[in-house]
Amino acid sequence: MSAPRQSLSKAERLKAFLVEEARSAGFDVARVVSPEAIAGKAPAALDAYLKHGRHGTMQWLQETKDRRSDPRTLWPEVGSILMLGMNYGPEHNPLDVLAQKDRAAISVYAQNRDYHDLIKGRLKGIAGRFAARSGGDVKVFVDTAPVMEKPLAEQAGIGWQGKHSNLVSREFGSWLFLGSIFTTEKLPADRPGTDSCGSCRACLDICPTNAFPAPYQLDARRCISYLTIEHKGPIPVEFRPAMGNRIYGCDDCLAVCPWNKFASDAREAKLRARDDLKAPALADLVKLDDAAFRAMFSGSPIKRTGRNRFLRNVLIACGNSADPALIDPCRNCLSDDSAEVRGAAVWALSRLLGHEDFLRLKDNATEEPDDTVRHEWHMAVGKQ
Questions:
Q1: pLDDT for the residue 364
Q2: 3: pLDDT strictly greater than 60
Q3: In terms of Cα–Cα distance, which of 363, 362, 355 is closest to 383?
Q4: How much is the pLDDT for 384?
Q5: How far are the Cα atoms of 52, 236, 319 from residue 55, in angstroms, in the given order?
């Protein structure tokens, strides 16, 4: 006669309830980690990252270092953390658009509405129901909060931080949105993930700008995602040709990960790409004024970059296109109100026009009031 089945403890029942609520809300994976799980390794890695200046102009990483290093500093009462992942694997290979030089490549995660809004609302609903059931306090965080989501997700067993520094999952490859629910309840923790990258270097070797100084290390200052989204002002000239037609983010290191082949059967929770953002024409994007930009990207994460920075990226893609149909739209940008846009237009035209045609535009340089744009003219004329 078999022994009677042990009943679950209160903590186990609460965990089971929380995980079920997460799955019912559309999350593909939800696992628990203790708040002290990342002590040691993750803070040391963050210190080294900041010490080498690899965060670029993302000064908030330095300012929030202590809170990032230990969730208990962010919220001393936290007893457990539920890490959640939502699959957003694309229906198509995001690298295909890179060969269409007259089209723009937008990172998969930004091809629909802002995932922060989508996830945070669901997290609040889950957390509210859990608080009502448990009586404990809760807090929810998504990306913008000073939480080291990827190390916590690794320690929760959702996956591991791959050589490209992003989270990799055996089930969902490199395509997971992450969120977290902090609670004062102490729940049973899951086992940490195991690094399964092996000898693979695909994500490192495909990077157009060599942004990985070593496996598991990223220099944001060389990363196209950072350059097109976070970096303000002119993009360093050395990286512009390598950007190709990538105007918002870069999916190369994610898309090439061989673990992605296991993600194809679990796509219920992903965001479907808007048709107009899968491969928009550069000729259309380069004409956007502020009102048109805001209308097109309402509810999109792209809107946060602002029209001028976005047009800067689009103009660099125009310069890389070798498409003569883009010459006139780029020339129109020479009189734009934004110095950031005018400077990028100078570079684009220096690539699209022949020597004599470009030199005929020199009068624009003498009338230019902005030092950075005059510098663009100086560099461009010098190379003609």
A1: 76
A2: no
A3: 355
A4: 63
A5: 8, 16, 27
Residues known to be catalytic: 143
| pLDDT of 331 | 97
Q: How many residues does the chain have?
A: 384
Q: CA–CA separation, 106 vs 99, rounded Å?
A: 13
- Distance set, CA 287 to CA 35, 310, 312, 346, 373 (Å): 49, 11, 12, 16, 20
Rounded CA-CA distance 85/180 in Å is: 9
pLDDT tens digits for range 144-193: 778 999 999 999 999 999 999 999 999 999 999 999 999 999 999 999 99
Q: φ, ψ for residue 61 (rounded to 5)?
A: -65, -40
In Å, what is the CA distance from 292 to each residue of 287, 296, 306? 9, 6, 12
The Cα angle at residue 135 between residues 132 and 137, in degrees rounded to 5: 95
d(CA 23, CA 287): 43
What pLDDT does 266 receive? 47
Question: DSSP string covering 209-261, please?
Answer: T---SBTTB--GGG-HHHHHHT--SSPPGGGHHHHTTEEE---HHHHT-GGGG
Q: Which residue, among 126, 139, 138, 176, has the nearest Cα to 154 in the 3D structure? A: 176
Phi, psi (5° rounding) for residue 246? -80, 110
Per-residue pLDDT band for 135 (boundaries 50, 70, 90) equals very high
Q: What confidence score (pLDDT) does residue 50 get?
A: 86
CA pair distance 115, 149, nearest whole angstrom: 15
* Closest by CA position to 58, among listed 267, 237, 220, 182: 220
pTM attached to this predicted model: 0.92
